[in-house]
Amino acid sequence: MRSSDLDIERKTIIVRQGKGQKGWRALLSNLAWGMVQKHIAEYLTQLLAISEAIF
Predict the structure, then answer these.
(1) Which of 9, 44, 2, 43 is nearest to 28 (CA)?
(2) Which residues fall within 8 angstroms of residue 14, CB to CB, at 6 or more apart?
(3) 5 in Cβ contact with 27 (< 8 Å)
(4) Which residues are registered as beta bridge partners of 6?
(5) pLDDT digits (tens, 9 = 90+) for 29-48
């Protein structure tokens, strides 16, 4: 998944090469959207910690 696959305003995600080798947009529930936001926050926190350790 790429960050460009997320549409924050519409709470959708782009599914690439799904069934039938076609892509589409999927609407995320509030629960799923919250999980995505939590994952992104944790990822950015880890990335920041790594970059601080390097520099």
Answers:
(1) 9
(2) 4, 5, 6, 7, 23, 24, 25, 26
(3) no
(4) 13
(5) 999 999 999 998 999 999 98
Tell me how far apart the alpha carbons of residues 14 and 12 are, in angstroms, rounded to a whole number.
7
Query: For residues 50 and 55, what is the distance between their CA atoms, to the nearest angstrom?
Result: 9
- Note the pTM of the prediction, 2 decimals: 0.66
β-sheet bridge partners, residue 17: none
Half-sphere exposure (CA, 13 Å, Cβ side) for 52? 6
Burial class (CB in 10 A: 0-12, 13-18, 19+), 11: middle
User: CA angle, 37 as apex, 6 and 23 as ends, to 5°?
Assistant: 25
